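Hey, resending since the last one bounced:
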Amino acid sequence: MTTAVSSPRIVVTVAVATAQADPDLAARKNALYAEAVARHGATAIVLDAASTPDARQIAFEAMDGLLLSGGADIDPARYGQPVAGSVDIESDRDDLEAAAFAAAIASAVPILGLCRGLQAINVFSGGTLLQHVPGHAGHAWGRGPATVHPIRLVPSSRLASIVDEPGPLDVNSYHHQGIRPGDLAPGLAPSAWADSEAGLLVEGLEVTDGRFIVGVQCHPERVESTPRAFERLFEAFVAACKAETSVRG
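The structure tokens again:
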């Protein structure tokens, strides 16, 4: 008799929609992240900076995986720099995600970071950011066609094995900050590269010890401007979280 694997519970950190300039648009953005894991069989536990301490504790104790989503810039004080290009900083979100990341690391659950989430993985792991990349951000989502740029996957990386598509691949560009090779935290390895006016940028990263901790600079949840192969990233993430569910019981 086969025992069914429970739906993995994935904490999804998002912006406080009502605090954004366009709350309806922000809510639509938030929903895309939850939908991306739900369509592969996961249960999304959505948290934002307005979540109560009790809600956070319950979510962190229950989570089988963590998805760090896109959004505002991380406070440069988190990586020891003054503000030099960062905008729309939300320190309360930084606090939420730092706590979520620490809980996920302590529980050894899979972590996926998208856009800001990739940058958060790097910062929380001891890395830094380039606070502004000239000419790298296009129209805001919902405000016009997506700007795209090519990335080159590192052939030996987990990301390349998941996406399983020859490159370069054109991905959407909704960010104005980046990670240069020298900004990468210890214990992280690049899995995708892109060229920019500021030089070579890390647009995919992962840990070097075999755990599922993966970040991409693009927004694969925005399927209209992302190569279809990136849907495999959500599939693989949820599968890793399901495996964690089996271990945790």
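The chain has a mean pLDDT of 93.

Sorry for the duplicate.
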